[in-house]
Amino acid sequence: MAGITLAQAQAQLDAWMAASTAVTTGQEYEIDTGSGRRRLKRADAAEIRQQISFWDGQVKSLTPAAVGGRRRTRYIVPE
Predict the structure, then answer these.
(1) C-beta separation of 55 from 63 below 8 A
(2) What is the pLDDT of residues 30-76, one digit of tens each?
(3) First to last CA, the chain
(4) Residue 30: helix, strand or coil by DSSP?
(5) 31 bridge partner residues
(6) How far apart are CA 19 and CA 52, in angstroms?
(7) CA-based angle 13:19:20, to the nearest 5?
(8) Which residues contact residue 32 at a Cβ distance below 8 angstroms, ignoring those fewer than 6 apart?
(9) Strand (E) or helix (H) holding 41
(10) Can you list the pairs that 14-23 forms with residues at least 24 positions away whose Cβ atoms lie under 8 Å?
């Protein structure tokens, strides 16, 4: 099995960040099923924070600068 790529880790981080945003608008919501209403609960906010922390660490560890890549530095000299 191949390891997790930076793109995969970033996609997971983005998904968990979107989940965090969704939870901030309400933990519980109702939907109309046509034959009645159904009450649903979103994921636990603590679990979302934990996943964000994990995937943020993965993204940072897979970023080229973190794995020995060269950082580029730009110097701007004012005229």
Answers:
(1) no
(2) 777 777 887 777 667 788 889 899 999 999 988 876 555 555 677 78
(3) 54
(4) strand
(5) 38
(6) 10
(7) 90
(8) 38
(9) strand 37-41
(10) 16/48, 16/51, 16/52, 16/55, 17/52, 19/43, 19/48, 19/51, 20/45, 20/48, 20/49, 20/52, 23/48
Residues 6-40 pLDDT 10s: 999 999 999 888 888 877 877 777 777 777 887 77
Contacts 24+ apart (CB under 8 A), 49-53: 49/20, 51/12, 51/16, 51/19, 52/13, 52/16, 52/17, 52/20
Both tokens of residue 58?
Answer: 């993965």
Residue with tokens 């939907």: 31
Tokens of 19: 């989940």
Question: By the 8 A CB rule, do 75 and 33 touch?
Answer: no
What does pTM read for this prediction? 0.62
Please, are residues 9 and 62 in contact by the beta-carbon 8 Å criterion? yes
